[in-house]
Specification:
This protein has 94 residues and is an alpha+beta fold. Helices cover 40% and strands 18% of the residues. It is built from 2 helices and 4 strands, in the order αββββα. It has a 4-stranded mixed sheet with strand order 2-3-1-4. α1 (3-24) crosses α2. The termini are close together. The mean pLDDT is 91.
């Protein structure tokens, strides 16, 4: 992956983390993984902005998403809602 494309991914994923923090006052859990479609250029790397990458075959047009162990708590529910909202508002366009 070239540096320009990697930079775009970094900016977008960092924007997701900032959005969740701003909307919920909580950080996305450190245990979170970036779930990446096996057709994405992200499969070439192991992590980005300190987030490990898990490669899967996804039956969706989405290139990636984020996953973490969910605990049924108001904090986690608000984070999940913010993540969904982010992906509804913004799309990654390399």
């Amino acid at each position: 992956m070239n540096e320009e494309l990697r930079s775009k991914y970094v900016q977008f994923i960092a924007s997701l983390y900032r959005f969740v923090k701003k909307e919920t006052s909580y950080e996305i859990p450190e245990s979170a993984k970036l779930v990446v479609n096996n057709t994405s250029p992200l499969v070439e790397i192991d992590s980005i902005i300190g987030v490990d990458i898990m490669i899967v075959s996804m039956n969706t047009p989405d290139e990636f998403s984020i996953a973490f162990v969910f605990e049924d708590s108001p904090q986690m529910k608000s984070q999940l809602k913010a993540i969904k909202e982010f992906f509804n508002l913004y799309s990654f366009n390399p």
